[in-house]
# Entry
Amino acid sequence: KAPHVRSRSEINGAYQKQRAPVPDERVPWSVAWPAYAPIEFTHESVAKQPVWADPVDASRIAGLRDRLSYESSPLTLAPNGRPLNPFGRTGTTGRGLLGKWGPNHAADPIVLRARPDGVFEMVAIKRRDTGQWAIPGGMVDAGEVVSVTLRREFTEEAGALDDPREQAALSSALDVLFGSGGSSVYCGYVDDPRNTDNAWMETAVHAFLLPADLSAKLPLQSGSDAADVRWLPLDEQLLGGDASALYADHLRFVMLALRQVGGERVRSPSAENART
Ligand code: RP5
Ligand code: MG
Ligand code: MG
# Structure
């Protein structure tokens, strides 16, 4: 399978003409490529150094090499002091739309419910950047623990209810749901279309299975970060289809979640079939 295809793509509109083509076999840093000529791109929203972004000069950041990464610790730094993407070349240097040099940490809550026919559904948001359906995840704020990010991002993106009574109902349903901590599905690199040679996404994915009595109490409304929200059926068509049906590697994360959380229930119908 081709290595980090989305990290070499221009499917995020801001990256149009900002990537040099990188053939599959030249992705690994271990493959020498003296003529590699990536395009330097740091979006102006990042370059003007908002609070969530690093200084422009990576070599001036103390302790950069020892920043937390699920993939490479310590980070590998290039001679110019910039961290190197652990999955190889992307055709772009700089930070693109990402604030941090090196890993940029997100948290992704997969909220599942089971339909009576055994098919699982997930709360999905439609992203504004690529128009794809996605897990309603987001960036871990400075000093924030992942469990807090999971709930905060879910609420901001999928549960932005106008009606205070509905908001209260959602909030108590989420106390129960997120209070369990869910089950940890994945921690690591995300093949995100915003990745560059020097900045990339990493995420902690947690799955939460809604008890039947709570499903009805989970009203959804997309927040400003999302264009839409829905219960997305994780049926054979989606799971067996094109991975680009969901953003980045989200389809892979969903399959891992189903195997873990839904495993028993997913298997039981076929086990029954085998007996008849
Ligand atoms: C993906 O980007 C992560 O898996 C997460 O879903 C998302 C976080 O970025 P924003 O939603 O804040 O843009 O790599
Ligand atoms: Mg988000
Ligand atoms: Mg968000």
